[in-house]
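Narrative summary of target 7.
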Amino acid sequence: MNRMKLKKVRYMRRRMRVKSKVRANTRRPRMCISRSNKNFFVQIIDDSRAHTLVSASTLEKDFPISKNRCNKEAARELGKIIAQRAIAKNIKQVVFDRNGYLYHGKIKEFADAARENGLEF
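Modeled conformation, tokenized:
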């Protein structure tokens, strides 16, 4: 197996493992993060109704950081924004779906900022 294929297989296994644990807890909305090489995207989803309750991304016009939108600083700011929007809609507890990404670096910064600003997960 070549290196890239092995990397994708590990990512998919990790993603399915995370998804199975997240789907087991259906009482709380799911906070799902995804990222590209240049941006972050996050949604809080009610899986029972298949409805997005709150969303935020680094592509929004009023996002405070204009230069590098995919570093730890941007992830921290996005965590703060999503927490404020969720609290405004009376959402305090969520399940964090890290979507197969390792809980390290940017993902960890995002999660810590969301917790500091009032979300519980």
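The chain has a mean pLDDT of 92.
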